[in-house]
Structure formats: C-alpha cells, structure tokens
From TrEMBL:
Pfam families: GCV_H (PF01597). The gene is larG. GO terms for cellular component: cytosol; glycine cleavage complex. Belongs to the GcvH family. HAMAP family: GcvH (MF_00272). The glycine cleavage system catalyzes the degradation of glycine. The H protein shuttles the methylamine group of glycine from the P protein to the T protein. Keywords: Lipoyl. GO terms for biological process: glycine decarboxylation via glycine cleavage system; protein lipoylation. Residues 22-104 form the Lipoyl-binding domain. The glycine cleavage system is composed of four proteins: P, T, L and H. Binds 1 lipoyl cofactor covalently. This is Glycine cleavage system H protein.
Length: 129
C-alpha cells in the first residue's frame, strides 16, 4: 500500500496535496482497496463551498457507496471530469489520475488537524487489526 510522504491524510481516508492556497483532494490507496472496483463517483460542482468534515460527494463500488468527507474547508475550483467516464482511475492511480477535486483553501490552519503519512499508515494498521 502506498502512503506518499508529501500528502496529508484524514481519518476518513482522504488525502490532501497542499499547493499554496490550493489543495488537491482524493481518496487514499487504502480506501480504494477497501472499496474494491469503483463504478461511479459523485462530486460537487466548481464554485461549491466545502466545510471541513462535511460530505461533499460519494464513491460507489460494486457492493457499497462511501460518502466523501472534506478534509479542509474551501471553494471547489476544479473537479476531475475524467472520472465520469473512467471511475477506475481512482483504483488504478488514486494519487495522480484518480484525484477528485481541487479547492481554494479557506483556512490553512485546518491542515494542522490532518495526519502525516507516517501517522496515517499507523492509523490504517490499527484499523486492520
């Protein structure tokens, strides 16, 4: 399982790549493995406001639907429109082609509540026990 060091992670298995005032958001390798083959992704629209820890969409796999929870508050700038035709990108490449949204971060201090790769790896190890 992959835990890129440059990312931050939420307890809801969402990763964040901070890029200045923007953040790219997706689900973790662990999450996509647990869900199985992803068949569709429901995402917000550009311009939508996200509040930290509130639902902003969902990921559907063959046997389940998982809510997506915002790791940070902000305004949606972009959504990965490729996922409409190819939701499997989330399974195949969760940290690159499978990204979900880009937001303009409202409060950079919120990122201090997220986990480092090392802490997230420990977190999922406990979840698997």
């Amino acid at each position: 399982m992959d835990f890129p060091e440059e990312l931050k992670y939420s307890k809801e298995h969402v990763w964040v790549r901070i890029e200045g005032e923007r953040a790219v958001i997706g689900i973790t390798d662990y999450a996509q493995t647990e869900l199985g083959n992803i068949t569709s992704v429901e995402l917000p629209e550009p311009g939508d406001e996200l509040e930290q820890d509130d639902s902003f969409g969902s990921v559907e796999a063959r046997k389940t639907v998982a809510e997506l929870y915002a790791p940070l508050s902000g305004t949606v700038l972009e959504v990965n429109s490729e996922l409409g035709n190819a939701p499997e990108f989330v399974n195949d490449d969760p940290y690159d082609a499978g990204w979900l949204v880009v937001i303009e971060v409202a409060d950079s201090e919120e990122s201090n509540l997220l986990m480092s790769a090392e802490h997230y790896e420990d977190y999922v190890a406990v979840a698997e026990d």
